């Protein structure tokens, strides 16, 4: 899939492209990961921060998407609200969908529980996409990021 | 009137974790102000605020790009009292005044021209309780009311001829959030040039603005205007480019430049504002290690729900809400009684806590012996060495494994038929019977994991009487059997249509229904090797696992007390709910018989129930001294007699060979 070095190179290109399109991803931990945060509105009018990280998983040799939602006090959001209002997972969601592969694990750098989309299907999914150099992560995010409401630039701007 | 969008502090959970760690390992009791960074974003498109983000990087001051942060201090108090003292109106007023004076000083000294970040400062007042994981904090970003009245004119279409892209590039290259744009030449200059500018219309002052509202400048612009008005006291307006990726705007700010006498005095410091709300958050669920276990165990089971069985009702293993017909909804914690804390009792308990069962009670009359720990998974060598009680050992082990478990233990000998007792022991017997009945009543599920047939008799009677889910588990050398007893008594069971291949819960046999003789003392006159059950090591884990999963499936049935015996895997979302599970290890064969209860059963039959109802412990006493009493009461003795009375005539004259 992607070696760790390939991942880091792709990540740099990805962050640059995103910043050009005013989507504020930042490299962190010496280029090992990138993160982005923005506000999301809940149905009751409250705003919460959605904080997303792209981290390399060496077992599966793919990137994984980690994310969490915080109220402004730092309190985590109730899982029911996350499923219903933030990820908007309908009750009828099929078990094959990516969103059924979301679970909570201890974040590799932060040490607190973050949501994470399990990478078990990534290599399969990525095989179906046309990939050019420097477009790996953008294509990957267009599949995975969409599941959690992340913005992707328009194709023309890439 | 010009308005300026105030800051809303947004704290992320990892920020509090970073505070935990710093306080524990670095700061300890030191209350001196801690340098801290708040992060800003100029590309936020949602909400109506300037966000000041406190993240896990807020203490690593060199990891956030300079242009996206403002620096400040955190005043962390060690006690609730000192925090409250800092939060009085008087204290708040004082600290705001002091911080405002510092900013004003950097304005009057013109130090801001070299270091514009001096204009944007903030402070936090915080208290954290690291035992209860409660966090209190309030943030303030001082915004100066100077000049005292400002008007604005928005210039949305024309950014004074500037190209936002160029401005953003400049910001990225120089890490500067405040600089000048020359309207004539389109040149970008450092803000220090402002000192030599004569005409306010020649330049636009570019301010990187975290505001998300298109017609309102953000809070940082306020202090910039104060600095500009102070620098050029003859000016009554200036032009600002509020730079954001969501659509920069040009604003002309206007004010009256009559400097009051008060403002002329040397000690003058403008009024200011900028307090955010007091935040108060309880993060025990995230940081308390004991609750972390609870969280994680639940999480593990939630995964099952997300990945495999979306409709599974996991709460039934910890809380069971049951519709008891004609009564009402009961909402109570599932409580499991395990009679026998030996190999089966320990392994069943282990399985149950994995499902999230939190209330388990053990009953056992003996102590841990040296042969036990290898098979009894809740005991260890030290327990045998110190001769600890089995039930107590098992309960303590469960609590060590998961501190959230409510595990209890009772050392008690279950009264058994055929084990004679004399008069002196009768008082104790009465107590024991009452205690056992009380335990059965208080729990919802009873596992009969005792090591002899007769020991299971009284628990069966009591479970039948009180309509509890009773499951017997027994192991032989290379076999095991798991039986769920028919619920309640046969006569007052609710009528229920028997469907083909399934039998109502109330019609199921108990452990004794297939026996036509009463249980007697099986342990007397036996050699040591006959008294201890010798079994293949894998029998107990297999039996206990089957017994755990059987309960797990039953509890998913809409009303578990009505769960029929069925081998159809569509009975519940966990599959079939058999009556009996019998396994033969030598050929790896498992069968699932469904057996109807026997109306003359010596344990669950109506006759027995009636006797116990009428005579209570005295009936038990009778049975202990003379098990044949059971046969009399149930009429089994008559049945046996009738068998003997059958006369089968053998024609002795008949030749066995054909003619």
Automatic annotation (TrEMBL), chain A:
One of its GO terms (molecular function) is Atg12 conjugating enzyme activity. Keywords: Autophagy, Transferase, Ubl conjugation pathway. Pfam families: Autophagy_act_C. One of its GO terms (cellular component) is cytosol. InterPro entries: Atg3/Atg10. GO terms for biological process: autophagosome assembly; autophagy of mitochondrion; protein modification by small protein conjugation. Belongs to the ATG10 family. This is Ubiquitin-like-conjugating enzyme ATG10.
TrEMBL record, chain B:
It is found in: Cytoplasm; Preautophagosomal structure. GO terms for cellular component: phagophore assembly site. GO terms for molecular function: Atg12 activating enzyme activity; Atg8 activating enzyme activity. The gene is Cbn-atg-7. The active site is at 532 (glycyl thioester intermediate). Belongs to the ATG7 family. This is Ubiquitin-like modifier-activating enzyme ATG7. The keyword Protein transport applies. GO terms for biological process: autophagosome assembly; autophagy of mitochondrion; cellular response to nitrogen starvation; piecemeal microautophagy of the nucleus; protein modification by small protein conjugation; protein transport. Keywords: Autophagy, Cytoplasm, Protein transport, Transport, Ubl conjugation pathway. Homodimer. E1-like activating enzyme involved in the 2 ubiquitin-like systems required for autophagy. It comes from Caenorhabditis brenneri (Nematode worm). Residues 3-277 form the Ubiquitin-like modifier-activating enzyme Atg7 N-terminal domain. SUPFAM superfamilies: Activating enzymes of the ubiquitin-like proteins.
